[in-house]
Design a protein that fits this description.
Elements lengths: L1 E9 L3 H8 L18 E3 L8 E4 L2 E9 L3 E6 L6 E9 L6 E9 L3 H30 L12 H9 L1 H4 L5
Antiparallel strand pairs: 1-7, 2-3, 3-4, 4-5, 5-6, 6-7
């Protein structure tokens, strides 16, 4: 088993970020970093059981608490696991703690290496850009927006066909 956790405190109230979270699958979502990543598309929106994903990553919604939590389960038997996006009250009034948790289960050596060498770095970049978008749309852009590492740039070239946002 492995896990990957991202957290950030954003200077915006949780209800405001909750409204943005609910729009994450919209074609012109203000919060999804669709300029650089394939859009998140779900066949029935943020309903439990709704299937879809982003790019080649496929999953379905297994939990949805409007405005505060969305959990997805990967539907690839070679990559068993879940990932969730959560909003919690922040450490000070008017702030929100945003958390993304990915948990992978026993997926074999090949898939574990694929995760460690490539997918993890792309995943980390996408999640940090998602957090940057949430903060920016909430009117509090990050002082230091994510800059891709040379490794992420190289991986994006390698996986370009799967990572280039496709026109609707």
């Amino acid at each position: 088993m492995f896990s990957n956790v991202h957290t950030r405190v954003i200077a915006a109230p949780r209800p405001e970020l909750g409204k943005l979270l609910e729009r994450i699958t919209e074609p012109d979502s203000p919060s999804w970093p669709s300029r650089h990543w394939p859009p998140m598309v779900l066949d029935n929106g943020l309903e439990v059981g709704s299937a879809g994903g982003h790019g080649p990553i496929r999953y379905y919604v297994t939990d949805h608490q409007p405005g505060s939590r969305i959990e997805f389960t990967f539907d690839d038997v070679d990559l068993p696991g879940t990932h969730a996006l959560e909003l919690h009250d922040g450490p000070t009034p008017g702030t929100t703690l945003v958390r993304h948790i990915l948990i992978g289960y026993d997926c074999g050596l090949r898939n574990r290496l694929t995760w460690e060498v490539g997918l993890r770095w792309l995943h980390d970049a996408l999640i940090e850009q998602l957090f940057d978008r949430l903060a920016t749309v909430a009117g509090k852009p990050p002082a230091r927006p994510l800059r891709w590492s040379p490794w992420v740039k190289a991986l994006r070239l390698l996986y370009a066909r799967n990572l280039v946002p496709q026109p609707a």
